Amino acid sequence: MKKLINDPKAVVEESVEGFGLAHADLVTVHPDPLFVSRKDAKSGKVGLLSGGGSGHEPLHAGYVGFGMLDAAVPGAVFTSPTPEAIIPATAAANSGAGVVHIVKNYTGDVLNFETAAEMAQADGIEVRTVLVNDDVAVEDSLYTAGRRGVGGTVLVEKIAGAAAERGDGLDAVAAIGRRVNDNVRTMGVALSACTVPHAGVPSFELADDEIEIGIGIHGEPGRHRIAMENADGITDRLLEPILADLKPASGDKVLLFVNGMGGTPSSELYIVYRHAVKVLEAANLVVERSLVGNYITSLEMQGCSISVLRLDDEMTALWDAPVHTPALRWGM
Amino acid sequence: MKKLINDPKAVVEESVEGFGLAHADLVTVHPDPLFVSRKDAKSGKVGLLSGGGSGHEPLHAGYVGFGMLDAAVPGAVFTSPTPEAIIPATAAANSGAGVVHIVKNYTGDVLNFETAAEMAQADGIEVRTVLVNDDVAVEDSLYTAGRRGVGGTVLVEKIAGAAAERGDGLDAVAAIGRRVNDNVRTMGVALSACTVPHAGVPSFELADDEIEIGIGIHGEPGRHRIAMENADGITDRLLEPILADLKPASGDKVLLFVNGMGGTPSSELYIVYRHAVKVLEAANLVVERSLVGNYITSLEMQGCSISVLRLDDEMTALWDAPVHTPALRWGM
Amino acid sequence: MTATGTGTTVDAAWAIDWLRRSAAVVAEHRVALSELDRAIGDGDHGENLDRGFTAILAKLDEEAPPTPGAAFKMAAMTLISKVGGAAGPLYGTAFLRAGTAVGDAAALDSALLVAALTAARDGVVARGKAESGDKTMIDAWTPAVDAAAAADRSAPAAVLAAAAEAAEAGAVATDPLIARKGRASYLGERSMGHRDPGAASSALILRAAADAAAAAAPAGASGTGA
Amino acid sequence: MTATGTGTTVDAAWAIDWLRRSAAVVAEHRVALSELDRAIGDGDHGENLDRGFTAILAKLDEEAPPTPGAAFKMAAMTLISKVGGAAGPLYGTAFLRAGTAVGDAAALDSALLVAALTAARDGVVARGKAESGDKTMIDAWTPAVDAAAAADRSAPAAVLAAAAEAAEAGAVATDPLIARKGRASYLGERSMGHRDPGAASSALILRAAADAAAAAAPAGASGTGA
Ligand SMILES: Nc1ncnc2c1ncn2[C@@H]1O[C@H](COP(=O)(O)OP(=O)(O)O)[C@@H](O)[C@H]1O
Ligand SMILES: Nc1ncnc2c1ncn2[C@@H]1O[C@H](COP(=O)(O)OP(=O)(O)O)[C@@H](O)[C@H]1O
Ligand SMILES: [Mg+2]
Ligand SMILES: [Mg+2]
Ligand SMILES: [Mg+2]
Ligand SMILES: [Mg+2]
């Protein structure tokens, strides 16, 4: 394992410290328990908080700022944070109107946020939870812990964040977050595994001509292992279950999000995007908005995920609304 | 070699096509000869053009847009483009006030841009060339092709782009570009090599406990191969020759740019940034501006480069000026 | 601190010794547990538990809990705040419920121990909603609780030894199962042929409880357990 | 097309044959040339030249240049527009200067050939500023030009054979050198022990010129060359 790190046990702390130094205009880093809060939040708005294991950067701390999150709680690498950190972060995100927790659907995240939400409510902070579970790779959700929260999380955070920024109330912000989740589907592929710093070995082994289809974002193996294919073929394989599950109507407007897992150059993401647009247009969908880049990653994993969000006019307007965070910025 | 590509020979064309689809609001892709031009350039401003081998994305096409480049010419992977494409791109970038070519100092780039500039001038377009050569890894520049253009290129493009946008004349834009180049120094490290698509094998071999210090951005080996060190140690090694060469005075204001080579997660870049800030502050420098991320890459190479730019007030103001390109955006 | 006991009950010293022995086996098996998790999860289970039990050791060094219940509650709060992931809240709930079950009793007899183990298991089920056969820590805990309930109640050491043995068998028995809860469930059939890490760690921790009780019991006072 | 020649001159057919043979050897050695470049450069030299010569073949299929000079100029423009990198402008300049040197002569005798080779080399030096010993294509070209100038001038085939032989030796002789120009110069001493890719490709292309001339010469008309 070769990484630009010092002590494998201090990776998250040191990285977030550096992040805080680089973005001191936007965020404050609270070191112990570790969480990140927004510097300029206006009082009285609904607070937005997300968190989860680290290793998915820029998610979540990179999205703290105007028009998106008010606080982010980074756990250990690929390990959900504990209530110990979520509770004070919830308090920091609260300016009187309550806090929405955006939680990716993993047993650990759900349990820890559940406990934290209970304790924050006991302290008098209203909490609503938006569970993100957009991963169509998980087929039999009845017989599993349910679909995972993956790429769609970024879109939920942006759109719900814009709703909070324009002054929507607690239930309204949670409702728009859920609406985004209900309308987004994601599927991912890994060309290589990633190496968790404290483990020191890749999280799975993949032969030189194999890829994993249907991965999550924690370096876990996917649903199927298949022989390497070209970019167009892989794109077809990712889009097929997305469209089968989302069942968009002809003429629907969509946001197409091609996300890099961390170790794939953006040039390759654009090759995937190119074909994805063709597939969606052939299905009579209108690609109204796009996002291409490393927005929710698995350390240095090579691969990508594709998310398709069915847009309505309100979601589009909230997507377009100004945002100013370390990792997503436009309109200001 | 596993990559999200179709035909290794079509990588650049397909990737730029996808890029054009994703950013159709900002850029136009001209397929043959291949170049990218800005959609909304205002008439009468000095045009800015850059180009070079592909594989460094988002450089250069990602910087086409308001406040930065007017055209970019992507060559084959790691191979400078030819006059055949540079000439029409120069014509597209010209709206009457002439064009500045920003050229990274490599024999191939210099020769091809030289030829193109000559031919464009013959067609009546005034051309000035800003040669970027910020790489302190090249020690004996008298006995080599001279220092290479690396990370500093991004800063030259941003700051000269802002000067052109505010209406500076041809010589003034070239002068500010040269001033940035004169005040920036860069040094890079590779933890792994990258694989050029048509080659199919990594551009060099590196043992599990070795790193290359002083790499360029073309997958070429560096100046020294050393045993793996921790992030702080590597950061020290990169900053030492930068500061020795730049010789900043105590109290100088600097921009600190920690750039990922493509395959390194941003969390690791922030660990490097964290220590770099400490080293610069210990040298009594004021880190006034920062940039951390993948801005000039070598495909999926793991590693980073550090650039330090000595700022003056004008450069800082031009850095802060609004920019709206696919890969760099703020203030609008 | 040397664990003590009358042979028919276990006390705070036993509880503390249990936690210390748990910390030791978790540290010893840290890599192995993460390795199990790497096969069907995300490779952090050993690391997670080690972080939690290291924090428990630090707390124990600061202040010795006066009762088994206080020790369990301290362990619960520490695991909940330090472990994260699925295992943190689940183990935390287990210790919390065990603590509530024993109240502030200074000594626990076999019946109270069985009640504590049952409450712990029920807490994990309540939080995680897993059923037997879902390939989770429940597949170690439920056989352990059943064995404890059926064991010779003359000595806690015997009860805990029976529980540990059953937990170990239960962990081994997760190998052929298809996971239906937790991260491993995403693998579907590919989770077959691997041991559930949480079941494995549960067996280690219950064995530590039995070992602490055996060490605490006066010579000859223990029951049928190892 | 069969190359023809009087034995004392070479013509357009020879020039076309040279370009076709060059395309063939470059294609054959594409991977090997890139492999040389991978060691001390960026691994694209074979790919670059192959792209250029493939384009030259396409142009030749469209229209046969009427004179050697026209063939050289067509090659020059194609290499400049298609190859990129350092090699594109340098080889392009070489062919351009050679074309200018021979003007629109229909047949080139040995003296004109030597002048063309000299002009080509001088063009590369003018563009690239490399000196002998800098570990570049110049280290193949300069010995080639010197050998051509000194060769028996009775037949172009002999002149070109001498040039090719010297270029090959020159390419081999780049192995121990430290590069001072081009990408390889960034490696400093680490460039030692590797052959310069541009010198290697120059030797291949000059050998193709000699082979084309040998094929064109009537049996027995060639000089001392191989
Ligand atoms: N719903 C559940 N009920 C009971 N145990 C569970 C459940 N989900 C996960 N587990 C247990 O947690 C273990 C994984 O713990 P750990 O690796 O620390 O957390 P994470 O899965 O969040 O990385 C699994 O091996 C399993 O025994
Ligand atoms: N300044 C120079 N003068 C002469 N030849 C040069 C010079 N710079 C580079 N070369 C030649 O070009 C070759 C490399 O060509 P190529 O790999 O196609 O271009 P690039 O280096 O741009 O990738 C070198 O092997 C060397 O022979
Ligand atoms: Mg985990
Ligand atoms: Mg090249
Ligand atoms: Mg785990
Ligand atoms: Mg090369």
From TrEMBL, chains A, B:
Keywords for the protein's UniProt record, in alphabetical order: Glycerol metabolism, Kinase, Transferase
Stored Pfam families: Dak1
Coiled coil: none
Any one cellular-component term (Gene Ontology): cytosol
One GO biological process term: glycerol catabolic process
InterPro entries in the record: DhaK_1, DhaK_dom, Dihydroxyacetone_Kinase
Entry-linked PROSITE patterns: DHAK
EC number(s) given by UniProt: 2.7.1.121
Gene Ontology MF term list: glycerone kinase activity; phosphoenolpyruvate-glycerone phosphotransferase activity
Domain of life: Bacteria
Domain (DhaK): residue spans on this chain: 7-330
Associated pathway: Polyol metabolism; glycerol degradation
Reaction catalysed by this enzyme: dihydroxyacetone + phosphoenolpyruvate = dihydroxyacetone phosphate + pyruvate
Cited SUPFAM superfamilies: DAK1/DegV-like
Subunit structure: Homodimer. The dihydroxyacetone kinase complex is composed of a homodimer of DhaM, a homodimer of DhaK and the subunit DhaL.
Name of this protein: phosphoenolpyruvate--glycerone phosphotransferase
Organism per entry: Arthrobacter wenxiniae
Lineage, uppermost ranks: Bacteria, Bacillati, Actinomycetota, Actinomycetes, Micrococcales
